[in-house]
């Protein structure tokens, strides 16, 4: 497996994964919308996307968005999207993508990386906690997790 950061010219690599990710969250399939959204985020330097390639196929991705802390005077990162194709789950791809995101945030000088997950997503919660994320608060239907980098 290889994990790499993609640029705007490589947006198509994750278009299908992003479309399936949206469908997982009960959005209608729309490959054109998915491709346009990913391309715009990358072209405008509004997000960072890492893709996992397994057996020559895009197997998963994560998308991070910047956020800022005035008090700490630094940029932090939100791991907003994480998706692993059903045929590639239980192979450590999700964990590898998360660890890549943590390393990226640390190298970028961030103080922390945060994410949210549904309160009923117990599998994800176990993974995040095993990696070292700490549960911060409970929102409506979601838990906020944060890790210092």
Key words describing this protein structure:
149 residues, Acyl_CoA_acyltransferase, 7 strands, 34% helix, Bact_Acetyltransf, alpha+beta, GNAT_dom, seven-stranded mixed sheet, globular, Aminopeptidase, 4 helices
**Helical percentage:** 25-40%
CATH class, named Alpha Beta
Question: In the CATH hierarchy, what is the architecture at level 2?
Answer: 3-Layer(aba) Sandwich
The strand order across the widest sheet is 1-2-3-4-5-7-6
Detail the poorly predicted runs.
none
What is the CATH H-level superfamily? Gcn5-related N-acetyltransferase (GNAT)
Structure description:
This protein has a single domain, classed as Gcn5-related N-acetyltransferase (GNAT) (Aminopeptidase, 3-Layer(aba) Sandwich), CATH 3.40.630. The chain is 34% helix and 36% strand. It contains four helices and seven strands; from the N terminus they run E-H-H-E-E-E-H-E-H-E-E. Strand 2 and strand 3 form a beta hairpin. Helix 1 packs across helix 2. It is globular and about 40 Å long. It starts with a strand and ends with a strand.
